[in-house]
Amino acid sequence: MRRKLVAGNWKMHGNHRDNAELLSDIMAARPFGCEVSVCVPYPYLSEVAVGLAGSGLLWGAQDCSAHERGAYTGEVSAAMLAEFRCRYVIVGHSERRQYHAETDQGVADKAKAALACGITPIVCVGETLVQREAGQTEAVVKRQLSAVIHALGHCAGEMVVAYEPVWAIGTGRVATPDQAQSVHALLRAQLSAATPHAGDMKILYGGSMKPDNAASLMSQPDIDGGLIGGASLKAADFVAICRVAG
Ligand code: PEP
User: Which atom number of ligand 1 is nearest to the Cα of residue 95?
Assistant: First the structure.
C-alpha cells in the first residue's frame, strides 16, 4: 500500500508574514494520515526549514541546477538545497519547460543532480491541450519520462512522478478521474519496465486539484496524491486536500 503524498507548490507567491500564517495553520491541523510537503521559493527555505523542523511536515524547492557548482549565475545547486534539509525538489514543471525552455534532457539532468544529493525529485510530465487534442498525450508523457528513467538508471525507482496536464494547471479545468488514471496507469507501466520498484513509486496528479475534486482523483488506483498549486496557498483548502489523502 503506497502512502499518499500531498505537495504544495507555492510558485512565486508568499512573503514572511503570509508564509508564517499559512504554515502555522497547516501545522495546527496535524496530524495527517499522508505525507505532506511544501515546495517554497528559495529565499524562504531557511525559515521554512526552521519552522517545520520536527513537525513531521516536509519541505522542498521548486527547481535546482543540473550543475554541481560553478559559474552559473542565478542557479541553485542540489547540494545547497540539501543544506536546508530539503526532502523534495520539483523538476520539469511545465512553467519551467515553457518559460525557461527546459528540455527533457535538462530535466533529467536536474533529477539526477537532486538524487545525487539525497533529495527526491518530483518529476513533472504532461501534455498541452494541443497535444491532447492531437492524440499525442501518451507519446509526450512517455518521451518526457523516458529521458529521466534513462538518466537515473538503477535509481529510477527513487523519484516521484507528477502527471500535470498543462491545460489543467491554474485553469480550474481539471482532468477527469478516468483521464488522469489512464495516464497514471501508462506511466506506471513504463516505470515497471524500468525498475522493480514501480509498484512502490508515487505518481501524483497535479492540475487544479481542489478539496471538491481531490477525493475522486485520489481514489483512482494509480493516483498517489497531489501536486497542488493554487490551493496550497489557502490553508483550509490545502488541509482539506491532505485530509482526503489520508
Ligand atoms: C502546479 O503548479 O503544479 C499546479 C498543479 O497548479 P494548480 O493546482 O494551481 O493547477
Answer: 2
